[in-house]
């Protein structure tokens, strides 16, 4: 037992070691390791610090030395909880309404102005690869990136499993001249990456729509029926609607950033927002055309289904008319009367069969000529 106690005594100090994130601090701005993706201070477009807490990074930027060089801090968060984000919100003076939206997510794309910051919401879209489109296939997957842009900071909050900004951060760090423009350069880069993702998804969705369109208007060799699966079309319409909800609300914010002077946006960066707005307008037009085209395809599919049902009914009616002839004649000669013509005739039976066959053949030929069979 004494050996066990000694072993426990040796292990317990190791378990008490500090396991906090290198970005965490004991005061305001404390955030768990799981929420902070990266936190760094940039001077003249170059990264100058690592492993600072959000609070320490802000103090570094707002020091006399930091203000002299126009430093700014970029904090990246992934799905923070309200408790994790409250410290940063207090330290950076973020508006409570914007903080609530950033924590709970599921927001429409928008741009909101507060006293000393801009709050921007982007919907990220990711195309889900699938071998075959079905009535339950997921075509697009959405996420969110929210940006708090201030004079000397930008805080990005990401929700969802895709839309990572790590590669974007590295790409900007490789271009110090652009990153020296400050937080507005980061905001533009995020907007540009998001809209470029829209363009890629739009091309992939176009391929799915073309596949459905070809299926609807082509002959099915296996079953001999025309038309596609309405369930697939409805599923594609739902996915396009999700795409539309991400693109359309973002048009006005991008126009505001590209056309109107904004105090927190560098004038040189504002010119780049025009290109983003143009690309976004193009994507929006594509999505609207997708919706109209799918409506037309759905209407054509329903019309073809109606035509197929009418063809089936005509065939059933034609065959019913053909079988009505032997049924009628057999019914007449099946009546139990003593005196009926041809009942005692030697060739009565074969004659009746030949008459039935002849009438049925004539009726079948007539329906065939008229396209009913």
Descriptive account of the structure:
By secondary structure, this protein is α+β, with helices and mostly antiparallel strands. Helix content is 56%, strand content 13%. The protein contains 12 helices and 7 strands. It has helices at 2-15, 54-61, 64-68, 82-92, 96-104, 166-173, 176-179, 183-216, 230-247, 251-259, 267-333, 348-369; strands spanning 36-43, 46-47, 72-78, 110-113, 117-127, 140-150, 153-159. Helix 4 runs antiparallel to helix 5, helix 8 runs parallel beside helix 11 and helix 9 packs antiparallel against helix 11 (267-333). It is rod-shaped and about 125 Å long.
Helices, strands, pairings?
Layout (H helix, E strand, L loop, with lengths): L1 H14 L20 E8 L2 E2 L6 H8 L2 H5 L3 E7 L3 H11 L3 H9 L5 E4 L3 E11 L12 E11 L2 E7 L6 H8 L2 H4 L3 H34 L13 H18 L3 H9 L7 H67 L14 H22 L4
Parallel strand pairs: 3-7
Antiparallel strand pairs: 1-2, 1-3, 4-5, 5-6, 6-7
